[in-house]
């Protein structure tokens, strides 16, 4: 396990060197996972090793308070997360622009990072980013509050005590502690909405991926309309869990995005066989069924 101190916080990080041979031109990819019920493993096993095989230098890390990174009492505002990421790149000695790939809250963070640290970013891949011009902080705080209530439900407690696998139970208990023992929910209230003017001035190429059946699909068109160089991919039949549901296509899509963008994007073929999803990271990502009742939270 590798650890670095970034922005004064101990972060768990794993770096996968290109397996296609070292090169000064190898894309450096930084992967930013979602919030609460997520950690480094979701990207490491789904896309990280695959992109390393394809010739990328890949950096995966646990966000503050998640996985094996330090769980501080406070410091969960979006601006703190951006400072953590900038500090991580500094600590690793990364001195050229990186390709940032984010999922859910990680995608929102990636977009904000691209706006604030444009010179450090080569491209952005945003998988299901919660994106609003107004009320983003309130929406994200509301989503976390919903998760906290659900996590304390008696049926969920029974599931954790009797039915959860070790990995899923460990992740769920960590999520409970994160929500109950830190200021993460209230810190989300400080999340500023995105500026239409800033997005219109963004000169970083953006790949945005949404599921057709996602609860936040209504935000996709607005993002694509505002960002000048935005390629929008909407995957039919899929939900907010695109990373888990369409892993094989995302692998193909990202190779196109990072290495062969001058050609049309690869066609999407619906994936009925999900055997590519390894049990370890699936059980860590997916909450128990009771947490999915009703409207799925926009932060994942």
SSE layout and pairing:
Layout: E1 2-6, E2 9-16, E3 28-32, H1 41-54, E4 57-61, H2 78-91, E5 98-103, H3 105-116, E6 121-127, H4 136-151, H5 154-163, H6 166-181, H7 184-188, H8 196-200, E7 206-211, H9 220-226, E8 230-235, H10 242-245, H11 247-259, H12 279-285
Parallel strand pairs: 3-4, 3-5, 5-6, 6-7, 7-8
Antiparallel strand pairs: 1-2, 2-4
Task: Describe the structure in your own words.
- By secondary structure, the protein is α/β, with parallel strands linked by helices.
- It contains twelve helices and eight strands.
- Strand 7, helix 9 and strand 8 form a beta-alpha-beta unit.
- Helix 1 crosses helix 12 and helix 6 packs parallel to helix 12.
- The longest helix has 16 residues.
- GO terms for molecular function: hydrolase activity.
- Keywords: Hydrolase.
Q: Which sheet architecture does the biggest sheet show? A: 8 strands, mixed
Number of β-strand runs = 8
Q: What is the average per-residue confidence, as pLDDT, rounded to a whole number?
A: 83
Order of helices and strands: EEEHEHEHEHHHHHEHEHHH
Q: End-to-end span in angstroms?
A: 25 Å
Assigned CATH superfamily: Alpha/Beta hydrolase fold, catalytic domain
**Secondary structure category:** alpha/beta
CA-atom Rg in angstroms: 18 Å
Give the DSSP E fraction (strand runs of 2 or more residues).
Answer: 15-25%
* Helix percent band: 40-55%
Q: Which fold name corresponds to the CATH topology? A: Rossmann fold
For the record, the CATH architecture stands as 3-Layer(aba) Sandwich
How are the strands of the biggest sheet laid out side by side?
1-2-4-3-5-6-7-8
Our count of helices gives: 12
Shape: globular
How many discrete structural domains? 1
Poorly predicted runs of 5 or more residues: 273-300
Domain AB hydrolase-1: 29-246
GO cellular component, one term: membrane
Organism: Candidatus Frankia alpina
Keywords: Hydrolase
């Amino acid at each position: 396990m590798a650890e670095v101190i970034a922005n004064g916080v101990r972060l768990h990080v794993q770096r996968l060197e290109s397996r296609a041979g070292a090169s000064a031109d190898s894309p450096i990819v930084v992967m930013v996972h979602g919030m609460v019920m997520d950690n480094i493993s979701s990207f490491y096993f789904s896309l990280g090793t695959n992109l390393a095989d394809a010739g990328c230098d890949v950096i995966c890390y646990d966000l503050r308070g998640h996985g094996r990174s330090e769980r501080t009492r406070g410091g969960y505002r979006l601006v703190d997360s951006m400072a953590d990421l900038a500090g991580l790149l500094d600590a690793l000695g990364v001195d050229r622009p990186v390709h940032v790939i984010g999922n859910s809250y990680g995608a929102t963070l990636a977009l904000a990072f691209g706006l604030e640290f444009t010179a450090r970013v080569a491209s952005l891949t945003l998988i299901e980013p919660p994106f609003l011009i107004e009320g983003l902080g309130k929406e994200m705080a509301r989503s976390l509050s919903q998760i906290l209530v659900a996590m304390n439900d008696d049926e969920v407690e029974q599931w954790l005590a009797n039915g959860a696998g070790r990995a899923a139970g460990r992740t769920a208990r960590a999520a409970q502690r994160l929500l109950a023992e830190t200021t993460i929910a209230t810190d989300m209230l400080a999340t500023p909405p995105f500026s239409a003017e800033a997005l219109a001035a963004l000169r970083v190429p953006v790949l945005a991926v949404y599921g057709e059946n996602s609860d936040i699909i209504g935000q996709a068109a607005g993002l694509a309309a505002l960002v000048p160089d935005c390629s929008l991919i909407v995957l039919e039949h899929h939900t907010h869990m695109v990373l888990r549901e369409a892993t094989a296509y995302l692998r193909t899509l990202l190779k196109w995005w990072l290495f062969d963008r001058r050609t049309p994007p690869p066609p999407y073929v619906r994936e009925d066989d999900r055997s590519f999803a390894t049990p370890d990271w699936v059980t860590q990502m997916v909450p128990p069924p009771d947490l999915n009742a009703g409207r799925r939270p926009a932060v994942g």
